[in-house]
């Protein structure tokens, strides 16, 4: 089977929602001030700086380590991440790879619970909070939303198309932590319970890189949630 020459999955830079959720959790409050759609959440100032550092790091890599093609989630924070990476590399004399958008690479869809923290869910939808506790994070389906099996199904289809369209090329996917988790489930056959244990010690940091290379017709993990461009 033809495969890409290398697959790197990049989580977007820190978003304003990442900041708002963390602050609400630290304060123990059921509000964060965010409005609108998850798809429209932008990068935070720190997220822009993270993407700039990734762009500088990319420009410093040899040509045979830079991507030939980028496929990006259409969510604003992912698009902003790649745009800043590409612009930074271009300013340093490196022509960035072409980019396509793929809706199958969006974050987990939370339906009616979109942009709600756990405490907000508990206060506004106590029955859903109870169902989440009973089903577990990965099997739980929020009203109008997805289980992680649903995320994995669309990520599986997206990866199959990457192999078909970009066989022999180095590909970067710029997306979300849920996509990274789903990709590990799909590519390595790891149960979500095992992935949860891994994430407890190695979370998928903003602008981290998860990299696979082909071995005997399959992709093997060589780096998980690495941040070689960290200051």
In a nutshell, what does this entry contain?
The chain contains eight helices and six strands. With 231 residues, the chain is α/β, with parallel strands linked by helices. The chain has a six-stranded mixed sheet with strand order 3-2-4-1-5-6.
SSE inventory with pairings:
Blueprint: E1 6-11, H1 16-27, H2 45-60, E2 69-72, H3 76-91, E3 99-101, H4 118-124, H5 126-135, H6 148-166, E4 170-175, H7 177-188, H8 192-201, E5 209-215, E6 218-226
Parallel strand pairs: 1-4, 2-3, 2-4
Antiparallel strand pairs: 1-5, 5-6
Regarding quaternary structure, what we see is single chain
Share of helical residues: 40-55%
Uncertain segments: none
Lateral strand order in the biggest sheet: 3-2-4-1-5-6
Radius of gyration: 18 Å
Please provide the count of β strands.
6
End-to-end distance, in Å?
Answer: 39 Å
User: How would you sum up the major sheet?
Assistant: 6 strands, mixed
Give the integer mean of the pLDDT values. Answer: 95
Structural class by SSE content: alpha/beta
Q: What general form does the structure show?
A: globular
Helices and strands, in order, run as EHHEHEHHHEHHEE
> How many DSSP H or I helices?
8
Q: How large is the share of residues in beta strands?
A: 15-25%
